[in-house]
Write a structure and sequence with these properties.
The chain has 102 residues and is mostly beta strands. The chain is built from one helix and six strands; from the N terminus they run αββββββ. A six-stranded antiparallel β-barrel has the order 1-2-3-6-5-4. The relative contact order is 0.21.
């Protein structure tokens, strides 16, 4: 059935739980905002931020690294989903990765 197939397709991307600080900017803007990456899959990320983003927003986000051997990860992402977390005064934001810059 199509339900089983879509479930299998979703399982092709393993979600890695994370709790990593990120920074992001709106594309073509300079002001930086902070957030957290909660999980990461091959297709996207789940973020938490204080700022209410809109579906369709294009962001440039950076995942910093503590290691001198690796540069920070920079990715272009598009906001696909926004859910309010009123008890924490935050928003949970699902983004799809458009491009990763090494």
């Amino acid at each position: 059935s199509s339900v089983e197939r879509s479930f299998d397709e979703k399982r092709n991307f393993i979600r890695m739980r994370m709790d990593t600080m990120i920074t992001y900017t709106y594309r073509n803007k300079t002001e930086r905002y902070d957030g957290r990456c909660i999980n990461l899959s091959g297709a996207g990320m789940l973020l938490q931020t204080d700022k209410k983003l809109k579906i369709g927003d294009n962001l440039q986000l950076t995942v910093p690294t503590d290691s001198a051997d690796y540069s920070s990860l920079s990715a272009s992402v598009e906001v696909m989903r926004v859910s309010a977390m009123p008890d924490q005064h935050k928003f949970e934001v699902g983004v799809v990765i458009k491009q990763i810059k090494g």
